[in-house]
Amino acid sequence: MREYKMRRGEHLEDRVPDMEAFVEEHFGPVTGTEEHNGSDLLVVDEPDNPVFERVVAGTVGYGSKKDKLALHIDEKPAEEVIAEGHVDAAEDAVSVKNDFLESATGRDAKARRESLKRDVEDDADAPDNV
Question: What separation in angstroms does the CA of 98 have from each of 8, 65, 80, 121?
């Protein structure tokens, strides 16, 4: 499960007031919930895009800190997607995922990658005994 930060000065609930409708708009009908870090996330067991097998998405609350967007997508292997003739759906899958993340967080793919790099570098600099 990967968690995504919001753009500075913005809050997830302001950008996405109805998370269930937002998830359904991008991935398909919500079929249940799943717990992650004390928050109930939305599950889509049969996503609209045939490349996705299962999607788990939603808001992870951190009390006094800003909430984060959590997203986990199980995808079919590339060989299976090609064999089923869903090559166009594979391109669309990338667009759907990036649109979902950018709409929710206000950060494009480049900004998310740079943030992830900074987080990894910060972890590498921390002493092992902390």
Answer: 19, 24, 22, 24
